[in-house]
């Protein structure tokens, strides 16, 4: 079994702003849940993530165990599998950076969708992603 891509997830100020918008729109108060769906939304996009500079770090930190909950090992495997699919290395730095890029892209994607303006809309989007 691979080790988690990161022990502590640190997000940018832009990602924090996106989380705050999603939290307000959906009423979901746990950021780890919104982050899980953001990563899944990014993984649903077959295109590789684009390298982006690290924005200013926010004060939001989430442990990998909190992010993944009882499915932390599944999320770990998904990140490594996506790196393999995108023909990237599986060294810890590459996997950690890819996770960060997917998380931030997913948060941006979710915030930009009209259907995430409510909890019902987010749930419909989740069903669409899962299908």
Topology at a glance:
Blueprint: E1 8-12, H1 13-26, H2 31-43, E2 57-63, H3 64-68, H4 72-85, H5 92-112, H6 119-130
Antiparallel strand pairs: 1-2
Helix pairs in contact: 1-5, 2-5
Can you describe what's shown?
- It is a single chain.
- The protein is mostly helical.
- It is 60% helix and 9% strand.
- It contains six helices and two strands; from the N terminus they run βααβαααα.
- The protein has helices at residues 13-26, 31-43, 64-68, 72-85, 92-112, 119-130; strands spanning 8-12, 57-63.
- The chain has a two-stranded antiparallel sheet.
- 30% of the residues are buried.
Mean pLDDT: 89
Sheet with the most strands, sense and barrel status: 2 strands, antiparallel
What is the count of β-strands? Answer: 2
Strand order of the largest sheet: 1-2
Number of helices: 6
Give me the Rg, rounded: 14 Å
| Helix proportion range | 55-70%
End-to-end C-alpha gap: 27 Å
Low-confidence stretches: none
Please state the structural category: mainly alpha
Order of helices and strands, N to C?
A: EHHEHHHH
Shape: globular
The fraction of residues assigned to DSSP E strands is: 5-15%
The quaternary organization reads as: single chain
Keywords:
mainly alpha, two-stranded antiparallel sheet, globular, 60% helix, 131 residues
Short description:
The protein is mainly alpha-helical.
